[in-house]
């Protein structure tokens, strides 16, 4: 079996993923684990990584480039945030820690003083997108639990804004009075589009439109497919209203899970704002490869 | 011990409360229980009520006037909604069910076709306020898990709108990434007022302002008192932005838990909209007394 020349790692809160890479930055093997930051203590990181890579580890020293929650205060070793405006993270800003044969380079997150904001992990996806699109000047939106809107220009992360819409969707659909109304995974494109437009036109009424989903089910028997799409559309519409200064008139790229990216793409398209979609795993790996390159050839 | 001439009951989702009343509508005794709709099955209602009243029950037949979730589809017996515009509920619209010696009159909730909305229990608080303020023409706001804004005119409930702000506050403060940032019960009036103004001015940015509470804690060590007040202020501010057509230029009354009513009062006052506060338990009892009066003297 071919051994890793170096290791690329994306260490999230609930999961982690590692790639054994060859000297030409090709993937030899990809491995997953549910040993995310939330499940382990700081002293467990070296063992989790070594066990996961197993026989892919070479006999001698090996470098690992790590992004994500491993660098959080409650992670492996804290990698303090780099403040915007800044270049994407590189080896120069990484925190190095030796773990047996593995020399781990933990990439920092990015912070913004005003308004206060932070990201950890997304900066590497951004770096990957910028590496693949070196002349990109515009806005990268990273939909997810905490969706980021990021203004990128001249190779720098200029500013960003995080929206909790994804987490609010999860709480409302899973634990609120709406949970029965939106049960299952049904969908209605029409209800989604209407709700996006509705929330953008009258953002203040969000909490009333949400309750109306429940009342509409009680009074009119409206189905869970329509209700679920409406809930999603209201939250994404509210976000698009708030993020308008980011996306209006900009070149837009979406980096995230494909189904969610397609929802954002559809909502933006209805506003006359076309957006391209890039695969989030590819972008993460490209960002880690770009950071590794700065180890070999410091900038 | 004096026996009940009739019984007034407010049967909620998580709790219920019953009053033994004399023939002059004075309270003989008040009793509480955690046997709310969510904890019991339909066949358990008669036993729960009889056990709670115990020795207060007279030897012969007795009437009970009941509002709230006992009339929900999953309650004791469904009392279908009365549609707005309508008078407050009376015996004429109640659903009667005999349970041993108790003749129970379950009051209906109120519904609205467009936009779809429902209330169950609040209509009796409204009836109580209208009984105590017979010439009231304006807006009654009932802050709570699902806050209601209700337009009342010429003795009728004309229209209403429900906002889920209270439930969203509970989910975000108890279970979201913000839960550590807002832990405890600290408070800052200044942070609350600023957040109300901020959300009213830019309602679309709600989900970003929420995440900013977390980032502000991480980057600047902002305390939980400020964070908690800001979370509350953002949600109430968003609601006031959406409910503006209800309260602007209207006579406003707040009926709910006193601490929450005072927050709404303070937020409204900053908008130049004075509001009076009425005690929610008093209003509920007054509403049940008014409904009982229609049994004795049908309208």
Write the layout of secondary structure elements.
2 copies of one chain form a homodimer.
Chain A: E1 6-11, E2 16-21, E3 27-33, H1 45-53, E4 62-68, E5 82-83, E6 95-99, E7 102-106, E8 110-112, E9 117-119, H2 122-132, E10 138-142, E11 147-153, E12 156-163, H3 165-175, H4 189-201, H5 206-220, H6 224-242, H7 244-247, E13 252-256, H8 258-269, E14 275-279, H9 280-296
Parallel strand pairs in A: 1-4, 4-7, 5-8, 10-13, 13-14
Antiparallel strand pairs in A: 1-2, 2-3, 6-7, 8-9, 10-11, 11-12
Helix pairs in contact in A: 2-9, 3-6, 4-6, 5-6
Keywords (chains A, B): Kinase, Transferase
InterPro entries (chains A, B): ATPase_NBD, DGOK, DGOK_C, DGOK_N
Protein name (chains A, B): Putative 2-dehydro-3-deoxygalactonokinase DgoK1
Brief summary:
Helix content of chain A is 37%, strand content 25%. With 299 residues, chain A is of the alpha/beta class.
